[in-house]
Structures are given as C-alpha cells and as structure tokens.
Amino acid sequence: MVMEVERARLGLAGSGRVRLLDVKTGPLLGGSYLGQPGIVRAWHMDKTHWLGVLLDASAPEQTVRELVDLSFSLTE
Q: What is the pTM (predicted TM-score) of this model?
C-alpha cells in the first residue's frame, strides 16, 4: 500500500507529508531493517510484521527492491 502520511505521525523531523510504502516482513528480519535510511515502523499496520519505506529516495533502491520482493513472497 502506498499512502501519504504526516511526517510528525512517523516521528520524522519537519512538516508536511511523505509518501510511504507499507511492506510485510517477519519480526526478526523486519527489525534488522529498522534504523536504516528511509525505513520506519509501519504507520497503521501491525508493527511486528510490517515496515514503512519512505518514498523520498532516502532508502537505497536495492533495499526497497528486497523489501518489496520479501513482502510479495509473504503475501502471495
């Protein structure tokens, strides 16, 4: 799911909205991505199994691709 979320709701500095992609992960693997640039806890999903990817070019493209592929495999 792609959505726009207020930066403050994600604990991000600044004002305005940011585009966010929610991706499904496992609890252990998801935790390993947190703290990387552009990766946050999912805004409105289960925080254990979902991550948010900021679509502002802060997350490396390879990381975004990995997370999309993982999410797809976990939800098919």
A: 0.84
